[in-house]
Design a protein that fits this description.
34% helix; alpha+beta; single chain; 6 helices
């Protein structure tokens, strides 16, 4: 109570152990709403190439243990305080992995509106929003981080991206535009389309 007689309150919300363990609590529902933000574009590209959406409004992405900093950054972007799930692989030729999983219908619906589907295998496409090339590079970085690679051959960098024919064709056009090429890079058909 102040000298003037008014009362000021601070409300502290605590969560029990069960609530803290549920991955659905306290994800930032404004995620992926601003697709001019480089983090939104990067993480959308990453989720498009390496994530899964389930019918239960659950979003999940699993990466090798060496890529944990990427999932930590996604966790931070989503403003979550839940830990990543660590899985120790028993087979010697497999890698340990980390999984980020959450259940949030608002975030999942936002991803659906942008064009992500729950059965996205070979149906991936660029987000359904205006994406100038200067912003698009963040989206493509995310796609390459999830399902591509950058390799050096004879001192020259080679960029590979695997995905749907539509996605790889759009990436090829993007590369052609930013490098001012007369012809766009070739899109190869394989078990998974590669550009």
């Amino acid at each position: 109570r102040t000298a003037e007689g008014s009362v000021h309150c601070v409300v502290v919300t605590t969560r029990n152990r069960r609530e803290r363990k549920q991955n659905s609590w306290y994800a930032w529902e404004g995620a992926f709403k601003d697709m001019s933000d480089e983090r939104s574009l990067f993480f959308y590209g990453l989720l498009l190439s390496d994530g899964c959406i389930y019918k239960s409004n659950r979003l999940s992405i699993c990466l090798q243990a060496r890529d944990k900093p990427v999932l930590d950054a996604l966790n931070k972007y989503l403003r979550r305080d839940s830990d990543l799930l660590f899985t120790k692989r028993r087979e010697p030729h497999h890698q340990d992995k980390y999984t980020l999983s959450l259940q949030d219908p608002v975030i999942v619906n936002t991803l659906f509106e942008l064009g992500m589907t729950n059965n996205k295998s070979l149906k991936e496409s660029t987000p359904k929003c205006h994406m100038p090339d200067d912003n698009a590079r963040h989206f493509w970085r995310g796609c390459i981080a999830g399902d591509g690679s950058v390799k050096n051959y004879n001192g020259l960098p080679h960029i590979y991206l695997c995905g749907s024919e539509e996605l790889c064709s759009e990436f090829s056009k993007f590369i052609g535009r930013i490098l001012l090429l007369k012809t766009n890079p070739k899109v190869n058909r394989s078990r998974k389309h590669e550009s």
